[in-house]
C-alpha cells in the first residue's frame, strides 16, 4: 500500500539539522518530494543527498533566512513556479534563548520574534493562497511546550511561540470551511543542537548542551510521531517526557505549577 506521503511535495524549514533533518529523512523514506530550507546551504545539500539515497523522488534545496521575512514571498513564488504545487508546509525553523529577561537586549528580543514568529507567518501567508487555489494543503508548525507555558531563561522564545499558537489557532478557525489543515506540534526536550545555538542576552550562541536537552527524545523518534500526527490530521500534539505534565499542571493547578517553576533548576 502506498505511503500517505508518497509523491506529496513537502516544504520543510530548519531542514539542515535536528528535527527538520529527521523529518526530511522520514518523509524521504515514504516517497515524498522535498523542498529543504535553512540558512546553511552546505548542510542542506548534505541532507538532500541523504534524502535522495533514502528514496525521495525529488529534493530541492532552497536556502532562506527566516529573519529576513520580507524576502520570503519572492522565494515562495519561485518555489511554487518550480514545483507546481505544495501539499505540505512544515514550519520548523527557529532559534531558542538562554538568558534572563533583564539581561536580554531588545535586539535579541526582536531577533527571536522575527525568526520564530514573523518568518513563519510570512512564509505561511506566501504559500497559503496557492494551497487555497488548489483546494489542498496542510500547514504544520513546530512550536514548543513553552508555547503553552512560560519558562525562566526563555522569555522571548516563549513569547514568540505563544504568538504562533495565537496566530495558527485563529488561522485554523478561518480555514474551517476549506480543505486546508493546520497542525501545531509542541515538543519538549529533544536531543538536538537547539540549546547550543540558543542566544544569550547579548545575542551570542550559548555554545553548550543543556542537561535536559541532552537526555531528551531522539529527533528521529519525534519525526515518526509527527508524521503519524499529520496523517491523523490532529490539530495539536505534545511530545517529550515528563515535562509534558507541566501543561496539565498549569491548566488545572496554576498556583501549584507557579511555585514549582520558581524552584525549578532551569538551564
List keywords for this structure.
seven-stranded parallel β-sheet
DSSP helix fraction:
40-55%
Query: What's the alpha carbon Rg, rounded to whole Å?
Result: 18 Å
Q: Which residues sit in consecutive blocks of at least 5 with pLDDT less than 50?
A: none
Number of beta strands: 7
Spatial order of the strands in the main sheet? 3-2-1-4-5-6-7
Q: Total number of helical segments? A: 10
| Alpha-beta content class | alpha/beta
Mean pLDDT: 96
Give the termini distance in whole angstroms: 45 Å
Task: Note the run of SSEs as H and E.
Answer: EHEHEHEHEHEHHHEHH
- Strand proportion, as a percent range, falls in 5-15%
Q: Main β-sheet, in a few words?
A: 7 strands, parallel
- Report the principal-axis shape: globular
Describe this structure in words.
The mean pLDDT is about 95. The chain is globular. It has helices at about 20-30, 40-55, 70-85, 105-135, 155-175, 195, 210-215, 220-230, 245-250, 255-265, and strands spanning about 10-15, 35, 60, 90, 140, 180-185, 235-240. The chain has a seven-stranded parallel beta sheet, with helices on both faces. Helix 1 (about 20-30) packs parallel to helix 2 and helix 1 crosses helix 8 (about 220-230). It is α/β, with parallel strands linked by helices. The longest helix has 29 residues, at about 105-135.
SSE arrangement:
Layout: E1 9-13, H1 18-29, E2 33-37, H2 41-54, E3 59-61, H3 72-83, E4 88-91, H4 106-134, E5 138-142, H5 155-174, E6 181-187, H6 194-197, H7 211-214, H8 219-232, E7 236-239, H9 245-252, H10 254-263
Parallel strand pairs: 1-2, 1-4, 2-3, 4-5, 5-6, 6-7
